Amino acid sequence: xMLLRRAASAAALxxxxxxxxxxxxxxxxxxxxxxxxxxxxxxxxxxxLDAEQTRLADPRATALVERAGFGDFVRxxxxxxxxxxxxxxxxxxxxSWGQALWQASVRRAQSQRPGGDLAPGDDRPLYWARLxxxxxxxxxxxxxxxxxxxxxxxxxxxxxxxxxxAFRTAPGVRRIFIxxxxxxGLDAEIRRANPxxxxxxxxxxxxxxxxxxxxxxxxxxxLPVRYADFDAGIVERAFTPHLAAGPASADIIxxxxxxxxxxxxxxxxxxxxxxxxxxxxxxxxxxxxTRERPVTAPGLGPGPEFIRTTLPADAVTAAVQTPYPVLLNxxxxxxxxxxxxxxxxxxxxxxxSRAVAGGGGGYLSNEVAYRSxxxxxxxxxxxxxGHLHTPVLTGLPADPQLLTGxxxxxxxxxxxxxxxxxxxxxxxxx
Length: 430
Prior knowledge:
Order of helices and strands: HHHHHHHEHEEHHEEEEEEHEEEEHEH
Shape: globular
Strand content: 5-15%
Number of helices: 13
Low-confidence stretches: 3-38
Structural class: alpha/beta
Distance between the termini: 29 Å
Mean pLDDT: 91
Strand order of the largest sheet: 2-3-1-4-14-5-10
Helix content: 25-40%
Largest sheet: 7 strands, mixed
Protein backbone atom coordinates (compact mmCIF):
# COMPACT_ATOMS: atom_id res chain seq x y z
CA UNK A 1 0.00 0.00 0.00
CA MET A 2 2.89 2.37 0.69
CA LEU A 3 4.16 1.84 -2.84
CA LEU A 4 0.69 2.51 -4.21
CA ARG A 5 0.44 5.70 -2.23
CA ARG A 6 3.77 6.99 -3.52
CA ALA A 7 2.86 6.02 -7.07
CA ALA A 8 -0.41 7.88 -6.77
CA SER A 9 1.39 10.96 -5.45
CA ALA A 10 3.81 10.90 -8.36
CA ALA A 11 0.90 10.71 -10.82
CA ALA A 12 0.29 13.66 -8.95
CA LEU A 13 -25.98 27.04 -20.17
CA UNK A 14 -28.73 27.23 -22.04
CA UNK A 15 -30.96 30.29 -21.42
CA UNK A 16 -33.49 28.23 -19.49
CA UNK A 17 -31.03 27.36 -16.77
CA UNK A 18 -29.28 30.70 -16.36
CA UNK A 19 -30.37 32.67 -13.29
CA UNK A 20 -33.38 34.85 -13.87
CA UNK A 21 -32.66 37.25 -11.01
CA UNK A 22 -28.99 38.07 -11.42
CA UNK A 23 -29.77 41.75 -11.43
CA UNK A 24 -32.66 44.06 -10.67
CA UNK A 25 -35.84 43.29 -12.64
CA UNK A 26 -35.38 46.40 -14.78
CA UNK A 27 -32.38 44.89 -16.56
CA UNK A 28 -32.46 41.16 -15.96
CA UNK A 29 -32.70 40.07 -19.59
CA UNK A 30 -29.61 39.33 -21.71
CA UNK A 31 -30.36 42.26 -24.04
CA UNK A 32 -30.67 44.70 -21.16
CA UNK A 33 -27.57 43.25 -19.52
CA UNK A 34 -25.52 43.89 -22.62
CA UNK A 35 -26.93 47.38 -23.10
CA UNK A 36 -26.46 48.45 -19.48
CA UNK A 37 -23.01 46.89 -19.33
CA UNK A 38 -21.39 49.65 -21.38
CA UNK A 39 -22.50 52.28 -18.89
CA UNK A 40 -21.93 50.27 -15.72
CA UNK A 41 -18.41 48.95 -16.42
CA UNK A 42 -15.10 50.35 -17.47
CA UNK A 43 -13.36 48.38 -20.23
CA UNK A 44 -12.20 44.95 -19.05
CA UNK A 45 -8.84 45.10 -17.33
CA UNK A 46 -5.78 43.50 -18.83
CA UNK A 47 -4.96 41.67 -15.63
CA UNK A 48 -2.73 38.65 -15.28
CA LEU A 49 -4.72 35.48 -14.69
CA ASP A 50 -3.72 33.07 -11.98
CA ALA A 51 -1.95 29.80 -12.73
CA GLU A 52 -5.20 27.85 -12.81
CA GLN A 53 -6.98 30.29 -15.11
CA THR A 54 -4.12 30.35 -17.62
CA ARG A 55 -5.03 26.77 -18.60
CA LEU A 56 -8.18 28.19 -20.18
CA ALA A 57 -5.99 29.10 -23.16
CA ASP A 58 -6.07 25.43 -24.16
CA PRO A 59 -9.04 25.07 -26.57
CA ARG A 60 -9.92 21.72 -25.02
CA ALA A 61 -10.97 23.55 -21.85
CA THR A 62 -13.52 25.58 -23.80
CA ALA A 63 -14.62 22.49 -25.70
CA LEU A 64 -15.48 20.70 -22.44
CA VAL A 65 -17.73 23.60 -21.47
CA GLU A 66 -19.41 23.91 -24.86
CA ARG A 67 -19.95 20.16 -25.25
CA ALA A 68 -21.88 20.12 -21.99
CA GLY A 69 -24.14 23.00 -23.05
CA PHE A 70 -22.63 25.36 -20.44
CA GLY A 71 -21.14 27.92 -22.83
CA ASP A 72 -23.76 30.56 -22.08
CA PHE A 73 -22.67 30.68 -18.45
CA VAL A 74 -19.25 31.92 -19.49
CA ARG A 75 -20.38 34.09 -22.41
CA UNK A 76 -23.16 35.94 -20.60
CA UNK A 77 -21.50 36.35 -17.23
CA UNK A 78 -19.40 39.48 -18.04
CA UNK A 79 -22.48 41.43 -19.19
CA UNK A 80 -24.39 40.29 -16.11
CA UNK A 81 -21.59 41.58 -13.87
CA UNK A 82 -21.89 44.96 -15.56
CA UNK A 83 -25.54 45.29 -14.56
CA UNK A 84 -24.60 45.60 -10.89
CA UNK A 85 -24.47 49.04 -9.27
CA UNK A 86 -23.27 48.19 -5.77
CA UNK A 87 -21.40 45.63 -3.73
CA UNK A 88 -24.67 44.19 -2.44
CA UNK A 89 -25.98 43.71 -5.99
CA UNK A 90 -22.73 42.07 -7.00
CA UNK A 91 -22.90 39.69 -4.06
CA UNK A 92 -26.44 38.67 -4.96
CA UNK A 93 -25.43 38.15 -8.57
CA UNK A 94 -22.44 35.96 -7.67
CA UNK A 95 -24.60 33.86 -5.35
CA SER A 96 -27.30 33.48 -8.00
CA TRP A 97 -25.03 32.55 -10.88
CA GLY A 98 -22.94 30.23 -8.75
CA GLN A 99 -26.00 28.36 -7.53
CA ALA A 100 -27.37 28.17 -11.07
CA LEU A 101 -24.16 26.60 -12.34
CA TRP A 102 -24.17 24.09 -9.49
CA GLN A 103 -27.81 23.17 -10.01
CA ALA A 104 -27.35 22.82 -13.77
CA SER A 105 -24.32 20.59 -13.21
CA VAL A 106 -26.19 18.35 -10.79
CA ARG A 107 -29.19 18.08 -13.09
CA ARG A 108 -26.97 17.28 -16.04
CA ALA A 109 -25.02 14.66 -14.07
CA GLN A 110 -28.30 12.99 -13.15
CA SER A 111 -29.63 13.07 -16.75
CA GLN A 112 -32.32 15.59 -15.83
CA ARG A 113 -31.01 18.28 -18.16
CA PRO A 114 -30.18 17.66 -21.82
CA GLY A 115 -27.30 19.41 -23.47
CA GLY A 116 -24.09 18.53 -25.25
CA ASP A 117 -22.60 15.21 -26.21
CA LEU A 118 -20.42 14.47 -23.17
CA ALA A 119 -21.51 11.73 -20.79
CA PRO A 120 -23.92 13.16 -18.18
CA GLY A 121 -21.71 12.27 -15.23
CA ASP A 122 -18.66 14.12 -16.53
CA ASP A 123 -17.45 16.51 -13.82
CA ARG A 124 -15.11 18.53 -16.05
CA PRO A 125 -17.65 21.03 -17.50
CA LEU A 126 -18.46 22.37 -14.03
CA TYR A 127 -14.78 22.88 -13.30
CA TRP A 128 -13.94 24.67 -16.55
CA ALA A 129 -17.12 26.78 -16.64
CA ARG A 130 -16.49 27.99 -13.11
CA LEU A 131 -12.90 28.81 -13.99
CA UNK A 132 -14.02 30.78 -17.03
CA UNK A 133 -16.37 32.78 -14.84
CA UNK A 134 -13.64 33.53 -12.29
CA UNK A 135 -11.42 34.79 -15.13
CA UNK A 136 -14.22 37.15 -16.21
CA UNK A 137 -14.57 38.31 -12.61
CA UNK A 138 -10.83 39.05 -12.48
CA UNK A 139 -11.10 41.26 -15.60
CA UNK A 140 -14.27 43.03 -14.47
CA UNK A 141 -13.86 46.76 -13.76
CA UNK A 142 -16.90 47.99 -11.81
CA UNK A 143 -17.71 51.63 -11.16
CA UNK A 144 -17.81 51.01 -7.40
CA UNK A 145 -15.27 49.57 -4.91
CA UNK A 146 -15.36 45.79 -5.00
CA UNK A 147 -13.46 43.15 -3.06
CA UNK A 148 -12.72 40.74 -5.90
CA UNK A 149 -11.35 38.04 -3.60
CA UNK A 150 -14.50 38.05 -1.45
CA UNK A 151 -16.73 38.02 -4.51
CA UNK A 152 -14.82 35.12 -6.01
CA UNK A 153 -15.21 33.20 -2.75
CA UNK A 154 -18.98 33.68 -3.00
CA UNK A 155 -19.01 32.38 -6.56
CA UNK A 156 -16.78 29.46 -5.62
CA UNK A 157 -18.89 28.45 -2.61
CA UNK A 158 -22.18 28.70 -4.48
CA UNK A 159 -20.96 26.82 -7.56
CA UNK A 160 -19.55 24.03 -5.39
CA UNK A 161 -22.79 23.33 -3.54
CA UNK A 162 -21.89 24.95 -0.23
CA UNK A 163 -24.92 27.25 -0.29
CA UNK A 164 -27.43 24.77 -1.70
CA UNK A 165 -27.09 21.52 0.22
CA ALA A 166 -29.86 21.45 2.81
CA PHE A 167 -31.38 18.05 3.49
CA ARG A 168 -35.06 17.59 2.81
CA THR A 169 -36.62 16.87 6.15
CA ALA A 170 -38.29 13.46 6.31
CA PRO A 171 -38.75 11.37 9.45
CA GLY A 172 -36.64 8.25 9.55
CA VAL A 173 -34.46 9.15 6.54
CA ARG A 174 -30.74 8.96 7.26
CA ARG A 175 -28.65 11.94 6.13
CA ILE A 176 -25.31 11.43 4.41
CA PHE A 177 -22.95 14.33 3.67
CA ILE A 178 -20.00 13.82 1.32
CA UNK A 179 -17.39 15.88 -0.47
CA UNK A 180 -15.55 15.30 -3.73
CA UNK A 181 -12.77 17.18 -5.51
CA UNK A 182 -12.05 19.06 -8.72
CA UNK A 183 -9.86 17.51 -11.42
CA UNK A 184 -6.14 17.93 -10.75
CA GLY A 185 -2.78 17.16 -12.33
CA LEU A 186 -3.88 19.19 -15.32
CA ASP A 187 -0.43 20.35 -16.39
CA ALA A 188 0.38 16.75 -17.18
CA GLU A 189 -3.00 15.94 -18.79
CA ILE A 190 -5.55 18.73 -19.19
CA ARG A 191 -8.33 16.26 -20.03
CA ARG A 192 -8.28 14.69 -16.58
CA ALA A 193 -11.49 14.31 -14.61
CA ASN A 194 -11.97 13.41 -10.95
CA PRO A 195 -14.31 10.51 -10.17
CA UNK A 196 -14.93 11.88 -6.67
CA UNK A 197 -16.35 15.07 -8.16
CA UNK A 198 -18.40 13.07 -10.62
CA UNK A 199 -19.80 10.94 -7.79
CA UNK A 200 -20.70 14.05 -5.79
CA UNK A 201 -22.65 15.49 -8.72
CA UNK A 202 -24.39 12.23 -9.56
CA UNK A 203 -25.36 11.48 -5.96
CA UNK A 204 -26.27 14.93 -4.64
CA UNK A 205 -29.89 14.97 -3.48
CA UNK A 206 -30.41 11.28 -4.25
CA UNK A 207 -32.42 8.95 -2.04
CA UNK A 208 -30.80 5.58 -1.30
CA UNK A 209 -32.16 2.34 0.04
CA UNK A 210 -29.57 1.22 2.57
CA UNK A 211 -28.45 -2.34 3.13
CA UNK A 212 -30.95 -2.75 5.98
CA UNK A 213 -33.88 -1.48 3.88
CA UNK A 214 -34.08 1.98 5.42
CA UNK A 215 -33.86 5.20 3.43
CA UNK A 216 -31.10 7.81 3.24
CA UNK A 217 -30.52 11.10 1.45
CA UNK A 218 -27.15 12.32 0.15
CA UNK A 219 -25.94 15.89 -0.01
CA UNK A 220 -22.59 16.70 -1.58
CA UNK A 221 -20.08 19.44 -2.33
CA UNK A 222 -17.09 19.56 -4.70
CA LEU A 223 -13.95 21.11 -3.20
CA PRO A 224 -11.00 22.83 -4.90
CA VAL A 225 -7.53 21.30 -5.11
CA ARG A 226 -5.88 24.44 -3.76
CA TYR A 227 -4.03 24.92 -0.49
CA ALA A 228 -5.10 28.56 -0.23
CA ASP A 229 -8.79 27.64 -0.11
CA PHE A 230 -8.12 25.10 2.63
CA ASP A 231 -6.17 27.78 4.55
CA ALA A 232 -9.21 30.06 4.16
CA GLY A 233 -11.49 27.48 5.77
CA ILE A 234 -13.52 26.06 2.88
CA VAL A 235 -13.64 22.60 4.47
CA GLU A 236 -14.91 24.05 7.73
CA ARG A 237 -17.51 26.15 5.88
CA ALA A 238 -18.72 23.06 4.06
CA PHE A 239 -18.90 20.67 7.00
CA THR A 240 -19.73 22.75 10.08
CA PRO A 241 -23.46 23.23 9.26
CA HIS A 242 -23.83 19.45 8.95
CA LEU A 243 -22.02 18.68 12.19
CA ALA A 244 -23.67 21.26 14.42
CA ALA A 245 -26.93 20.27 16.10
CA GLY A 246 -30.04 21.23 14.18
CA PRO A 247 -32.09 20.41 11.08
CA ALA A 248 -29.04 20.56 8.78
CA SER A 249 -27.09 17.97 10.75
CA ALA A 250 -25.92 14.78 9.05
CA ASP A 251 -25.95 11.23 10.40
CA ILE A 252 -22.72 10.26 8.67
CA ILE A 253 -19.98 12.15 6.79
CA UNK A 254 -17.28 11.00 4.45
CA UNK A 255 -14.83 12.81 2.25
CA UNK A 256 -14.05 11.21 -1.12
CA UNK A 257 -11.08 11.66 -3.43
CA UNK A 258 -9.23 9.87 -6.21
CA UNK A 259 -6.59 7.50 -4.91
CA UNK A 260 -4.89 4.36 -6.15
CA UNK A 261 -5.08 2.38 -9.39
CA UNK A 262 -7.70 -0.35 -9.46
CA UNK A 263 -8.89 -0.29 -5.83
CA UNK A 264 -11.05 1.57 -3.35
CA UNK A 265 -9.51 2.26 0.06
CA UNK A 266 -11.10 3.31 3.30
CA UNK A 267 -8.39 5.31 5.01
CA UNK A 268 -7.94 4.22 8.62
CA UNK A 269 -5.92 7.27 9.69
CA UNK A 270 -5.77 10.94 8.66
CA UNK A 271 -2.61 12.84 9.57
CA UNK A 272 -2.32 16.44 10.68
CA UNK A 273 0.61 17.34 8.42
CA UNK A 274 1.23 18.49 4.87
CA UNK A 275 4.17 16.68 3.32
CA UNK A 276 3.46 16.38 -0.41
CA UNK A 277 6.09 18.68 -1.90
CA UNK A 278 7.34 18.77 -4.66
CA UNK A 279 3.82 18.01 -5.96
CA UNK A 280 1.84 21.26 -6.45
CA UNK A 281 -1.86 22.01 -6.22
CA UNK A 282 -3.98 23.28 -9.11
CA UNK A 283 -2.64 26.80 -8.60
CA UNK A 284 0.91 25.41 -8.84
CA UNK A 285 1.39 26.23 -5.15
CA UNK A 286 3.37 23.98 -2.83
CA UNK A 287 2.40 23.09 0.71
CA UNK A 288 5.75 23.95 2.24
CA UNK A 289 6.02 20.49 3.74
CA THR A 290 8.08 17.48 2.74
CA ARG A 291 8.42 13.95 4.01
CA GLU A 292 11.48 14.95 6.03
CA ARG A 293 9.99 18.28 7.19
CA PRO A 294 6.20 18.08 7.45
CA VAL A 295 4.26 21.26 8.26
CA THR A 296 0.89 22.04 9.79
CA ALA A 297 -1.59 24.02 7.71
CA PRO A 298 -1.95 27.70 8.69
CA GLY A 299 -4.87 28.29 11.02
CA LEU A 300 -5.70 24.63 11.55
CA GLY A 301 -7.47 24.24 14.88
CA PRO A 302 -6.14 22.12 17.73
CA GLY A 303 -6.23 18.37 17.35
CA PRO A 304 -4.26 15.15 17.62
CA GLU A 305 -1.51 14.18 15.20
CA PHE A 306 -3.66 11.39 13.76
CA ILE A 307 -7.44 10.88 13.66
CA ARG A 308 -8.90 7.42 13.11
CA THR A 309 -11.92 6.71 10.95
CA THR A 310 -15.19 5.84 12.64
CA LEU A 311 -16.77 4.48 9.47
CA PRO A 312 -17.81 0.79 9.74
CA ALA A 313 -14.88 -0.47 7.70
CA ASP A 314 -15.48 -4.17 8.40
CA ALA A 315 -19.08 -4.01 7.20
CA VAL A 316 -18.13 -2.14 4.04
CA THR A 317 -15.17 -4.29 3.06
CA ALA A 318 -17.15 -7.47 3.73
CA ALA A 319 -20.03 -6.38 1.51
CA VAL A 320 -18.56 -4.34 -1.37
CA GLN A 321 -15.83 -5.83 -3.55
CA THR A 322 -16.92 -5.47 -7.17
CA PRO A 323 -16.02 -4.31 -9.69
CA TYR A 324 -13.17 -2.89 -7.58
CA PRO A 325 -11.85 -4.35 -4.31
CA VAL A 326 -12.47 -2.20 -1.22
CA LEU A 327 -9.64 -2.35 1.31
CA LEU A 328 -8.96 -0.81 4.71
CA ASN A 329 -5.67 1.08 4.52
CA UNK A 330 -3.89 1.45 7.87
CA UNK A 331 -0.66 2.89 6.46
CA UNK A 332 0.84 6.02 8.01
CA UNK A 333 4.15 7.82 7.94
CA UNK A 334 5.29 9.24 11.27
CA UNK A 335 8.27 10.64 13.08
CA UNK A 336 8.34 8.48 16.20
CA UNK A 337 8.57 10.07 19.62
CA UNK A 338 12.17 11.08 20.29
CA UNK A 339 13.22 10.55 16.66
CA UNK A 340 13.90 12.94 13.79
CA UNK A 341 13.51 10.73 10.70
CA UNK A 342 10.21 9.61 9.12
CA UNK A 343 9.14 5.97 9.39
CA UNK A 344 6.53 4.17 7.29
CA UNK A 345 4.15 1.92 9.19
CA UNK A 346 1.42 -0.42 8.00
CA UNK A 347 -0.36 -0.74 11.36
CA UNK A 348 -1.14 2.83 12.32
CA UNK A 349 0.76 5.41 14.39
CA UNK A 350 2.68 4.85 17.62
CA UNK A 351 2.07 6.88 20.81
CA UNK A 352 3.63 10.33 20.85
CA SER A 353 4.65 10.34 17.19
CA ARG A 354 4.41 13.32 14.86
CA ALA A 355 2.31 12.93 11.72
CA VAL A 356 3.99 13.00 8.32
CA ALA A 357 1.25 11.38 6.22
CA GLY A 358 -1.98 9.53 6.76
CA GLY A 359 -3.22 6.71 4.60
CA GLY A 360 -4.17 9.34 2.05
CA GLY A 361 -0.65 10.74 1.94
CA GLY A 362 0.35 14.29 2.86
CA TYR A 363 -1.73 16.08 0.23
CA LEU A 364 -5.23 17.56 0.24
CA SER A 365 -6.98 14.18 0.22
CA ASN A 366 -5.48 13.52 3.61
CA GLU A 367 -6.10 17.08 4.79
CA VAL A 368 -9.79 17.13 3.91
CA ALA A 369 -10.19 13.93 5.93
CA TYR A 370 -8.30 15.40 8.87
CA ARG A 371 -10.10 18.75 8.84
CA SER A 372 -13.60 17.30 8.52
CA UNK A 373 -13.03 14.64 11.16
CA UNK A 374 -11.34 17.06 13.54
CA UNK A 375 -14.57 19.05 13.37
CA UNK A 376 -16.63 15.88 13.72
CA UNK A 377 -14.74 14.92 16.88
CA UNK A 378 -15.34 18.41 18.27
CA UNK A 379 -18.97 18.94 17.28
CA UNK A 380 -20.53 15.49 16.80
CA UNK A 381 -18.21 12.77 18.12
CA UNK A 382 -20.95 10.15 17.90
CA UNK A 383 -21.17 10.46 14.10
CA UNK A 384 -19.43 7.99 11.79
CA UNK A 385 -16.89 9.75 9.60
CA GLY A 386 -13.85 9.05 7.48
CA HIS A 387 -12.35 9.11 4.02
CA LEU A 388 -12.87 7.02 0.89
CA HIS A 389 -10.34 6.87 -1.93
CA THR A 390 -11.70 5.86 -5.33
CA PRO A 391 -9.67 4.12 -8.02
CA VAL A 392 -7.82 6.30 -10.50
CA LEU A 393 -10.14 7.11 -13.40
CA THR A 394 -8.57 5.68 -16.55
CA GLY A 395 -9.66 5.23 -20.15
CA LEU A 396 -8.99 8.55 -21.87
CA PRO A 397 -8.33 7.97 -25.58
CA ALA A 398 -4.71 7.99 -26.75
CA ASP A 399 -5.48 10.81 -29.18
CA PRO A 400 -5.00 13.96 -27.03
CA GLN A 401 -7.70 15.82 -29.01
CA LEU A 402 -10.41 13.31 -28.03
CA LEU A 403 -12.01 14.46 -24.79
CA THR A 404 -13.84 11.27 -23.90
CA GLY A 405 -14.32 7.66 -24.91
CA UNK A 406 -16.37 4.56 -24.07
CA UNK A 407 -13.85 3.08 -21.62
CA UNK A 408 -13.45 6.39 -19.80
CA UNK A 409 -17.22 6.78 -19.46
CA UNK A 410 -17.75 3.18 -18.33
CA UNK A 411 -15.09 3.53 -15.66
CA UNK A 412 -16.52 6.82 -14.41
CA UNK A 413 -19.99 5.27 -14.08
CA UNK A 414 -18.65 2.15 -12.37
CA UNK A 415 -16.77 4.18 -9.77
CA UNK A 416 -19.84 6.26 -8.90
CA UNK A 417 -21.96 3.12 -8.63
CA UNK A 418 -19.48 1.61 -6.19
CA UNK A 419 -19.26 4.83 -4.13
CA UNK A 420 -23.03 4.54 -3.82
CA UNK A 421 -22.74 0.89 -2.76
CA UNK A 422 -20.17 1.81 -0.10
CA UNK A 423 -22.50 4.47 1.28
CA UNK A 424 -25.44 2.03 1.30
CA UNK A 425 -23.52 -0.14 3.76
CA UNK A 426 -21.64 2.56 5.67
CA UNK A 427 -24.77 4.58 6.53
CA UNK A 428 -26.76 1.78 8.14
CA UNK A 429 -27.69 2.73 11.69
CA UNK A 430 -25.59 0.82 14.23
